[in-house]
Amino acid sequence: MMHMWRDYNPGEFHDELMAGPYQPRHFSYRLLDYLQSMRREAFEQRVADSELEMLERGITFTVYSDAGNIDRAWPFDIIPRMIAKREWDCTEKGLIQRVRALNQFINDIYNEGQIIKDGLIPADVVYQSKGYRPQCRGMQPAFGVWAHICGSDLVRDHNGTLYVLEDNLRVPSGVAYMLENRKTTKRILPELFKLLSISPVNDYPTHLASMLASLRPELSQPTMALLTPGIYNSAYYEHASLAQQAGLILLEGADLLVGQDGYVYMKTIHGLERVDVIYRRIDDDFIDPLVFREDSVLGIPGIMQSWRDGKIAIANAPGCGVADDKVIYAYVPEMIRYYLNEEPLLPNVPTWLCRDPDQLAHVLDNLPDLVVKPANESGGYGMLVGPHSSEAKIEEFRKLLQEDPDNYIAQPTLKLSVSPTIAGDHVAPRHVDLRPFILSGRDHYVTPGGLTRVALVEGSLVVNSSQGGGSKDTWVVDENGSGVSL
């Protein structure tokens, strides 16, 4: 298959596997040597087998469109992304540091609000955020943790510097696809797991169950459920998969009620049975029609009061989406210094706050070169990527910024790192990001690696599966270890 790599050239971009033309990185040479030594027919068969595996196992995601909701097979590239364990150990410490500070921030603003009183974050930035829920004031969840499952998106620039692009703390998705990517790769390329020492990820469901159980420390065996919006949700495959693997009961809002004693119960053929912990995969707006959207049929009337009374634990806690806000993102380095008295181990992408007149002027002067993001959108929607946008789109955003500058941030257009990816009959560089998952309860756990998302379209920076992106297995490799079967 060597000819498929003959013209491979990452150009000006940092390559995750290649140090230079025809020069693998020290931790990737065994992988690349193995792949390049395969006969083309054998390699193409492995690719076909991976696609068939995804279809046969029903690994799908839903794309919402004007034509209706479309289930698609999960787009997967069999050439893995690799990270040296030495680097990953430092990244893991930085992720734990970050989520500790974020949880202290959330706990602070719903209680003392000291960071606002001390002038580090303007009050209106917090209180006008769409994710801020005044109904959560005075709450103190177990261990002071609000965001129990966090998916922080990491990107690398052309110099190889790793940045945190954003933090997803409401209902972060993708971890089931990370697990499925690993299962598929182990079946398609089993020999490489004997050749290399690759950190396992298959224990994530066990860590998830342990973390959820820790939220009710007074109970020896709490009953735990995953609350899903139902089969028409784009992430329903993930909900069902995680529930099955972590030993959670998969439930919809209609399956639950709050009893007269204030506890939450599920309806069964044997009568009502109490539920102690809920891993919720629905947004705040829909969780309790008595408190938030009264037209919601997805939630459970009265569950917010049950949570406030300590009769149900909810992960992630209502209200934690305030730290998901992209304007508040700009203040995270200061949060780390403020709450932990430490310097950030992982930097933010350089960010301009459009609420500041001087920074707004800079953004308006350089709009064609910048990425502009609204505070509360996700999935790559509602944003401007200046270098890839039309003049009309740029002018549209110029007006939006002038009308509502508080709602926007701007960042430089990073030259995102690339990784070798199958592109038809050859291998080509494609831009990637990485979403590791951090669990927080009594302790912390970080997935070794995470979900690598890849922009399958040449030149595209959009990695989201709903907009044409795909994914790869992510290998954290111990360069000094011997191969083991994982």
Labels describing this entry:
15 helices, 30% helix, single chain, 4-stranded antiparallel β-sheet, 486 residues, 24 strands, 5-stranded mixed β-sheet, Dna Ligase, domain 1, alpha+beta, globular
Describe it for me?
By secondary structure, this protein is an alpha+beta fold. The chain has a domain of 59 residues: Dna Ligase, domain 1. The protein is built from 15 helices and 24 strands. Strands 5-24-23-20-19 form a five-stranded mixed β-sheet. A four-stranded antiparallel β-sheet has the order 7-6-21-22. β19 and β20 form a beta hairpin. α2 packs across α6. It is globular, with a radius of gyration of 23 Å. It starts with 17 loop residues before the first strand and ends in a 9-residue tail after the last strand. The C terminus is likely disordered.
Name the poorly predicted regions: 64-68, 482-486
What is the CATH architecture descriptor of the domain at 355-413?
Answer: 2-Layer Sandwich
- In spatial order, strands of the major sheet run 5-24-23-20-19
- Principal-axes geometry comes out as globular
Q: Can you tell me the CATH topology of the domain at 355-413?
A: Dna Ligase, domain 1
Fraction of residues in β-strands: 15-25%
Helix fraction bin: 25-40%
CATH class of the domain at 355-413: Alpha Beta
Question: How many helical stretches?
Answer: 15
What's the N-to-C terminus distance?
26 Å
Organism: Methylophaga lonarensis MPL
Region (Disordered): 465-486
Protein name: Circularly permuted ATP-grasp type 2 domain-containing protein
Domain Circularly permuted ATP-grasp type: 80-455
